[in-house]
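Let's do one together. I've listed all components of the complex below, 418 residues spread over two lines.
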Amino acid sequence: MRVKLLIYIICILGLAAPTRAAEDQGGDVDVSKIIFEHLGDSYEWHITEGAVIPLPCILIGEGGLDVFLSDKLEHGATYNGYHIATEGDNEGKIVNAAGERPFDISITKNVLELFIVCILLCSVVLGVARWYRKNGAKKAPGGFVGMMEAVIDFIDKDVVKESIGHGYERFSPYLMTVFLFILTSNLLGLLPVFPGGANLTGNIAVTMTCAITAFVAINCFAPKGYYKSIFWPDVPIFLKAPIPIMPAIEFIGVFTKPFSLTIRLFANIMAGHIIILALTSVVFVTAEMGTAMCASMTVVSVLFCIFMNCLELLVAFIQAYVFTILTANFIGLAHDE
Amino acid sequence: MILEAVAAGASLAKFGAAIGAAIAVIGAALGIGMIGKSATESIARQPSASGNIRTSMILTAAFIEGVALFAIVVCLLVVLK
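Okay, and this is what the predicted structure of the assembly comes out as:
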């Protein structure tokens, strides 16, 4: 009872911070700029106002290979003829003196986040596998290994085996990889600080790559009957020739499935991040409007942020699950035909 | 005159985008509401199938959300360009 009272008092004291901020604030808070800075990719990892992690820029232009840390380019400086464009089509990206982009394979924030997710996934999953190799025959798993077994068993039995049926073992590694990758990236995107907080699955390039791997898994391992069902389906003859209506529709369907996978994951995660960032900016926007307004809106903003973060946890899991089960279903459909 | 027309066109585009997003949300909410209605009715009729029904409900709701988010992405593109 006294612990609860203490916690309540500390929370109410926390209101003192934004009321102080309301007295110090002056000047405009550009909410959309803040939101798009957090959503987009960048050449450095911005942790707070003072602490910025510069990331390496790797460029192949006319002068050959150039590798340097991105802090050489901050505040619009030029290095080796390269600078970050501030307007036009290439805004925010490295361009050379003529305004064209070199071949840019820099380690940007999203690339570093990809590496972090891969290292995390490999170490966790391979560590669990090592536990099974050493103790699998002797004892039942407990704790963390048991939880991983429950998750992997759930995906293997209820998703992959159900949807694909016979011969599901071939696709099990790919589907579990894609599920764990999307789940981990979504969850890390919800953390506000390094090593989370980069908008990885909210980047359409990343989700498009996941969808391209799904496209390969669906179409390149399918039996002959699948291709026959696309180009000469089992429908009345007037729908197939002289004008191939059904084959055209089926062929377009081959491409709309990965496209919808891309957009669904990208839009869900990006929308969630935008909402949370907008709710957090409410505090800063109302800081200029006086202490009473700021204090009350901070309480509202924090409550909504807690609710949205819980919803985003659910959405992170659901989107990973839906991507996996849809890909498994499409693979299963391709193998049935 | 031309500048006024261009400015009016730009704000008309933003108005259209906002209305489009709202209509997409109406469609998604109606669809997911219907799913929820039939899911709860089915669970009431046969409680032992509630696991299967819950899974199907969540899956179908995710599909509908995906389609609504297509519309949201299009509206965002209109506003940002």
